[in-house]
User: Fold this.
Amino acid sequence: MCGHIFEREPGYFVGAMYVSYALAIPVYLALAGVLRLLLREWSDLAILTLALPLFVPFAPLLFRYSRVIWMHLDLAVDRTD
Assistant:
């Protein structure tokens, strides 16, 4: 056991939303880039529109990892054990 306390105050994971956003943008753009290569004749707006529903299944996974990253950042910054 590492001794890390997992009980946090309400609103603790609000910062994880920013981490989630930082993780989501590259994934979304990579997905759009792959679609752009596969569907060259489509417009940019159509590619971005198609990429959105394909990206949605990744959102819960990214948010889960963003919470873990947020806890690690908090532990690295605040070492009051």
